Amino acid sequence: MTDQQSFNQSSNERLSQLSAVNWVEGNRVVDIPTEPFKGQLLINGKWQASSDGSQLSRVSPAYDLVVAEYAKASVVDAEAAIQAARHAFDQGSWSTISGAERAKLLNQVADQMMARQQELAVLEVLESGKPIRQARDEVAWAAELWRYAAVSARSLHGDSHNQLGQDMLAMVLREPIGVVSIITPWNFPLLIVSQKLPFALAAGCTCVVKPSELTSATTLVLGEILQAVGLPAGVVNMVVGEGPEIGPTLTTHPMVDMVSFTGSTGVGKAISAAAAGTLKKVSLELGGKNPQIIFPDCDWEAAVDAVVFGIYFNAGECCNSGSRILVHESIADAFTKAVIAKSRQVPVGDPLCEATKVGAIISADHLQKVTDYVQGAEQAGATVSLGGQTQGTGGFYMAPTVLTDVTPEMAVANEEIFGPVLSVLTFSDLEEAIETANNCLFGLSAGVWSANIDNCLAIGRRVKAGTVWLNTWMSGYPELPFGGYKESGQGRELGKYGIEEFTELKTIQMHMGPRTSWWLPR
């Protein structure tokens, strides 16, 4: 019996009590490719097999078919990639050229990404299970990040100090930090690498990129694009492999100057501890348990739509997912009913269909993890007011799920579920809303819905989160920094802060004229 069959069989009794799903199938935008994507390692400008001949394959979570086969990197391969990046940086073919030259290449990458938009989108659908329309949008958003990084390459600069006295002039330089290990997750493969790699390149760094072994295809296509536009050999190296095997090399190697990681908080803590041995810089974008706080004077339709979007976007497999809402007790029943009604309309199913908004869950194991949270919540006293898992055509799917009667101490109110599961809590006044929002280990993002600007600004200033949205949710711009408080990470991506993460500061002090001797009296 397969994992999927076992899961379905054990869930039958509970599923029979749950609401029907707005299921979508047929009318695919494209056909499923007949041959899997073939991927190799990119080391020092050359595509190659792994040193020991190992391979791994990816089975689509939506279609239960092998959709990609990869050369699987070993520690030897990871070390070779790091050495290539080190040599390229020290040799200066990228780190010493002008910002204008870097910007030209980064813009060309964006052009090529858009020229291959459909190809990249389909690969993301096949490996991640996300809907095709969303995948196309993410390619376009990723391209915009490369264009913004190109602007950053030209505008990055240091500072000068000319008020230190007539005999002293000083400069503060921003220099590329060096070799960067970039480790990315499976939920937004192309988008998240594009929040890191172009900014590292804009600063003049060289990189070793390790995508998730579950969703490596679009990152490798990006490698093809980088080669096509003329990036010097060794500046970007790509290794596909399993984190426990090659992750320690990428995070502890003395030739690596910085690690940039997006993923779970647990792995982020392990990386931070491992990197401490060489005191390398670490940038972490980790988990979230992000609240939307709903006041009685909210724009009702907008708030309901934002809640539904916030939890079901990318099937809830999103660090910014609005996975808990805090609703004022005077409107809690009516607002929750409106959210449930809208949730019933969300199309779930075949991700290659244009109408689909919620596709497949990444794996059987992850689907089991998500449903374990739901069952645990029921046992703790929560009510499953909507939701459950539905059988697709050979894949892993979960219906939009709403949990009510949730209290702040429950796991589903505090822990990141990473699935389409919404926890509904209530509050009586502003102070309780802020206390509940902050009573969590995470602090990535938060939102507030109210016509009262005082409520909005109080939430904005007092909730401990890296981003707070006022009467909107999950809006994003390349110009604005992204990152979290507390166990949601450290450091920032995007904006001018995103490129500055990949730099070191150097102070140069210049003395003019004769210097007073230390041995002589003044």
From TrEMBL:
Active site positions, chain numbering: E285
A Pfam entry, by short name: Aldedh
Family indicated by similarity: Belongs to the aldehyde dehydrogenase family.
GO MF assignments: oxidoreductase activity, acting on the aldehyde or oxo group of donors, NAD or NADP as acceptor
InterPro entries attached to this UniProt entry: Ald_DH/histidinol_DH, Ald_DH_C, Ald_DH_CS_GLU, Ald_DH_N, Aldehyde_DH_dom
Protein's recorded name: Aldehyde dehydrogenase family protein
Keyword set, alphabetical order: Oxidoreductase
PROSITE patterns attached to this UniProt entry: ALDEHYDE_DEHYDR_GLU
Transit peptide found in the keyword field: no
Lineage: Bacteria, Pseudomonadati, Pseudomonadota, Gammaproteobacteria, Oceanospirillales
Keyword Transcription included in the entry's annotation: no
Residue ranges of domain Aldehyde dehydrogenase in the record: 47-508
